[in-house]
Request: fold
Amino acid sequence: MGSARPRRLCPPRTGTQRGSYNSHINRAQVRPPSGETVSDERARRLSPPLRRALPWLIAALLLTTFGLPSAAAVTHLPTFPMIGVAHPEAKNSTTTVNLTDAPAFNPRSVSASAGGTLSVHLVNLGAFNHTFTLSKLPNVALSTASTPAQLTSFFAKNGSLANVSVAPGGTAWANVTFNASVGGDSFEFVSLVPYQFQAGMWGFVNLTASGPGLELMENTTDNYQFIPDVLYAASPIHFPLVLDVLVTNTGSLGHTFTVSPLSNYTLFPDNFSTTFATNPPLVNQPIGSGAGTTAWANLTVRAPGVYQYICTISGHFGNGMTGLLYVGVVPPPPPPPVSTAVVESWVLVGSAVLLGVGVLIALVAAYTGRFPAKPPSDEHHY
Reply:
């Protein structure tokens, strides 16, 4: 047997040797198969500086894209209803009515506020049965010449707001709620026991307008706006209609709440003074300066329609401070709500700074190499 040849260890490859392959084998020496082409994948790749900068550019864009809407959504404008709807204001009262064998009600006249509940404590002081029957029709006085049958027929046909029978020596309660817009009306009450009404057992509930029939709320701003700029009193069953508007100043400037007396009539900044000189406004209520200042504007509307209200302080109406009061007329639907997000200046500046930082880091990384630098490696390949 011959002696074995000694192995020769190969020296480790160097960068020069690795580069030798790349430098000696070039594109021109590679022959593609017939009918095909050779494409250089390296030519389609981004240059190393751009590849290093691309993640930072994407991060900067993401920060701006998501950070801006998120920060902007934190702050919102104060919201108000687009249409202010009137609500009844309750005015409740309690009274006592004695029923006697005269026959009579004592007292014969009872006062109550429109828009509230009247509670009547009925006390029978006699030895006979009596009723407290309140007519449903306003401002109708029944004739004492009516027979008991005719009186019963009237209530059967028209109904009653209350019909309470009180035994001799007994007590009872009659609770009646009146519509908020019937101020000034009278409702007759009688006893339906035969011939007691004809003998004088009758009386009236008189409704006063000492309190507002319907209540509305309005706000004034330093942007020369009423918010809301549409007020709505829906289908009142009776006129005149008493309205009470609570106006709150949300800014620092003083204003007025002035309602035109003319329905379906448009006021303009250059003609409202002339119009009011011959047609006094339904109300001209000053609203004091300072946020939180309030004032009640009481007015009486005598017919359905659309009434314009304005601020009469110089320049305010001209800058758009006006609104419409719809009484018994349905207002048109409001426009679609707009976004209430506010992009404040600090949000824009912060987003610009974030984007600038991202671009700066990307440029530095593109010209100086990997950022942060790749840690050194001790590994060697043989």
User: Anything to note?
Assistant: The radius of gyration is 44 Å. Residues 48-72 form the longest helix (25 residues).
